[in-house]
Amino acid sequence: MIPTTKHNENSFHFNFPLTISRWPAPSRRARRLYTKFLPAVIDAAADKSPELKKKYQARVDGLLAQDENRWIKGLSSQEAEALKKSYKERYNQ
Q1: C-alpha to C-alpha distance for 82 and 64, rounded to whole angstroms
Q2: Nearest-CA neighbor of 33 among 58, 60, 59, 15?
Q3: CA–CA distance, 30 with 46 (Å, rounded to integer)
Q4: What distance in Å separates the CA atoms of residue 58 and residue 64, rounded to the nearest whole number?
Q5: Per-residue pLDDT tens digits of the chain, which is 93 residues long
Q6: Calpha distance 52→59 (Å, rounded)
Q7: Residue 37 and residue 27 in contact, taking contact as beta carbons nearer than 8 Å
């Protein structure tokens, strides 16, 4: 189904089922970036030379080490316990 647009003087929106939304798209892009694209970059660099592989592996590792990308590694057991405790306190459970 191709989305169509409806327009009147007060609104402008797409006419498509509610199951299709914009929210899943960024998460799919992020998943592909981290699980397919970045490893493919390293593999392509490895095909050229070992030095190039090391260079791009270091760049990717530096990217993944940034605070913005900490979510990839998940929570440590201590962080998970602290989160559970804060939820129990917050919601009185």
Answers
A1: 24
A2: 60
A3: 23
A4: 10
A5: 444 444 444 444 444 444 445 566 777 888 888 889 999 999 999 999 999 999 999 999 999 889 888 778 888 899 989 999 999 998 887
A6: 11
A7: no
Write out the two tokens for 68.
């913005």
pTM > 0.90: no
**Residue whose token pair is 């990717």:** 60
Amino acid at 20: I
SS3 21: coil
Maximum pairwise Cα distance, the chain? 61
Taking the CB of residue 45, how many other CB atoms lie within 10 A of it?
A: 19
Token pair belonging to 5: 């647009």
Residue with tokens 């095909």: 47
